[in-house]
Design brief:
Largest sheet: 6 strands, antiparallel
Helix content: under 10%
Distance between the termini: 64 Å
Order of helices and strands: EEEHEEEHEEEHEEEEEEE
Strand order of the largest sheet: 8-7-16-15-12-13
Structural class: mainly beta
Shape: elongated
Radius of gyration: 21 Å
């Protein structure tokens, strides 16, 4: 008789000895083993079938650097498949944001295109938010910077360990750095002799009216 561990996050079948889901990396240490017969005959019998109606079994989630929301036990990101085993789970309300907060937008100083920012956390990079815009800029990392809108303020945090993040032509320190309206953000480069570097990307922070 076939036996499986059914992943509570993605529903994939795993061998009884699996410690984590081969499909999404979800921690299966506490997931019970079920038989194929139980799975077919008693699909709604509760904990014995390892069936979970709610994708997240608690009020906690893991936020991958790419911005994707994952179950708290996930070891790999469901979206980009990066290792997130060292990412600490946080409560859901912390990422939902306050709808009454002052909102901001990023403006491309070259094209003039504006990009409103959502309350909470926004990850930008060639494989994150604004990927279509940033893919042609080789100085921008796959996961380059994190923007946080919190209590009416906007913060930025560098996530790139190659070309870094700059504000007003100065490399920002580690950790959160508070932005002011009008600040020039440089991803991977600064203005040289008043000119933008084509391989880098730039944004100006603006307040939404």
């Amino acid at each position: 008789m076939d036996q499986w561990k059914i992943c509570p996050a993605c529903g994939a079948k795993n061998s009884p000895g699996s410690m984590e889901c081969l499909s999404c990396g979800y921690d299966l240490m506490s997931t019970p083993v079920v038989s194929a017969e139980i799975e077919k005959v008693e699909p709604s019998s509760g904990a014995e079938t390892a069936s979970v109606s709610e994708p997240f079994p608690s009020d906690y989630v893991k936020i991958c650097p790419c911005g994707a929301v994952n179950p708290p036990q996930a070891r790999k990101c469901l979206q980009c498949h990066e290792d997130i085993s060292d990412v600490l789970p946080i409560k859901k309300p912390q990422i939902e944001g306050d709808q009454e907060e002052r909102l901001f937008q990023l403006k491309d100083p070259v094209t003039g295109i504006q990009y409103p920012l959502k309350a909470g956390v926004t990850i930008i990079g060639r494989e994150a938010q604004f990927r279509d815009l940033l893919q042609s800029h080789s100085y921008v990392s796959r996961i380059h910077a994190k923007l946080i809108l919190e209590e009416g303020k906007c913060f930025i945090e560098n996530l790139s360990h190659t070309n870094y993040t700059f504000v007003n032509n100065q490399r920002i320190p580690e950790g959160r750095f508070e932005l002011r309206p009008g600040d020039l953000i440089g991803l991977g480069g600064i203005k040289v002799d008043g000119n933008f570097q084509e391989e880098a990307a730039y944004f100006i922070l603006e307040v939404l009216a």
